[in-house]
Design brief:
This protein has 248 residues and is of the alpha/beta class. It has one domain: TIM Barrel (Alpha-Beta Barrel). It is built from twelve helices and eight strands. The protein has an eight-stranded parallel beta barrel, surrounded by five helices. Helix 1 runs parallel beside helix 2, helix 5 crosses helix 7 and helix 7 packs across helix 9. It starts with a strand and ends with a helix. The model has no long low-confidence stretch (mean pLDDT 97). The protein binds 2-phosphoglycolic acid. The site of 2-phosphoglycolic acid has 13 residues, from strand 8.
Amino acid sequence: MRKMIIAGNWKMNKTPSQTRAFIEEMKPLLAGADAEVVFCVPAIDIIPAVEAAAGSNIVIGAENMYFEEKGAFTGEIAPDMLVDAGVKYVIIGHSERREYFAETNETVNKKVLKAFEHGLTPIVCCGETLTQREQGITLDWIRQQIKIAFLGVTAEQAASAVIAYEPIWAIGTGKVATTEQAQEVCGAIRALICELYGTETAEAIRIQYGGSVAPKNAAELFAQPDIDGGLVGGASLKTDFEQVVKFK
Ligand code: PGA
């Protein structure tokens, strides 16, 4: 049985002191949740988040990392830095990173491999634009993103990974994918993992849906057979997140 994983993606929100206060506020609300709960936070908020979450069921993740070990890469964060700070998960290849920071399937693959090398679990993002959906090439596009992201990844590593399917047109728009659309793509991703690695890996890997997940739609989305939780932007910044985590 796969354990559901519900991860907040704070994006560029909350200062370190706001982080401490919010995690303190959320701790009692999220205690005892059935799902695994992760907050992926801006780099500067990682240490206050880890400190505030200590002793609770809240796990802290990062929103990005670089694929080199160390050196002259001004402004970047190395995998070791995340590990040392207490990070467990790292979002890789979010569509905003692809769009605004020139990330490609190839850099995503390098980051995924590097994350595994350091014992971090990547939350590998994929998703189509509205044009791609309208052109009927969603599944081809997603297959390409995932195939390249997982080049060189072993079956054992893949089994522990998280994939987040986030249709770009549904991110931050309030326009959530229908449960059928979300399930169709998440099912196709699991079928691809089966094709690449076999049934056991496909049954183990966790696949999230992301894009305008909110208290009102979480239960229906997360009840789909191939959806193992969500990557949640806007709704993870408020105490409402409790209702997303406790969706049942
Ligand atoms: P949203 O963002 O929930 O605000 O749509 C999701 C994401 O980008 O991860």
